[in-house]
Fold this sequence. Notes:
Elements: H1 4-18, H2 20-27, H3 31-52, H4 58-72, H5 78-85, H6 94-97, H7 99-105, H8 111-131, H9 138-164, H10 170-187, H11 189-194, H12 206-225, H13 230-251, H14 259-270
Amino acid sequence: xxxxxxxxKEAMKVLKLTSRTFYIPIKLLNSTLKKTVGSxxxxxxxxxxxxxxxQLDGDVxxxxxxxxxxxxxxxxxxxxxxxxxxxxxxLLPEVTVRLGxxxxxxxxxxxDEVKASTSxxxxxxxxxxxxxxxxxxxxxxxxxxxxxxxxxxxxxSDIWKWYDGTETDRELxxxxxxxxxxxxxxxxxxxxxxxxVRFFPDGWTRDDMFAxxxxxxxxADQYMQQINTRNIILFCKIxxxxxxxxxxxxxxxxxxxxxxxxxxxxxxxxxE
Length: 272
């Protein structure tokens, strides 16, 4: 078993490999928040990799997600988790295999909240595996984006409250996550279609999805106004600014921001 310092180093390495959007702002957090948000993000990413896996069939994904959700509702029996994923371990990424490490790395005072949000996310993802990720109505879209991204907002709000008593509105926190996810849906529309997945409700145009994204990103702006801790504001601003800039890029008919645009957006926020 790794000691805490080694585990932190490994967590940041895995984080860098798994998330372009969140690695930069997590790195800028102070030590306590970096450990907390980093471990929480890795827990959610661990189950996200099961949902998105290209080689696992739907029944396997459903079972792994459902059973993992149950394990997260109790003390998390790591041996039972390893036994559950063992037949698929060679296919699964390190971030998924090491879920127990990320929970161990998470500070004791907040780990139960992280487990609760991750458990709910896994349960919701299992449901959407069964549905084949076919969104038909706005209610479907709201439900899907709540499970895969709104819960990230909920979990972050739990962390802010635990850290220094910062109180934020749950619905605005969900809107923050939903807004980021809606931008991803717009960006990945063609890629999703190729794999037979559709997140646009029946009859919706790109303009409708742009409006959905913008509505939720305005909730994210309101969410930001409830936070006074500078380090937390810096963290939240970066993914939000990148999402807004990506939306603008997509509206202008480009596929994605250039690396230079990403770097300049981040630099502007850090140097504000």
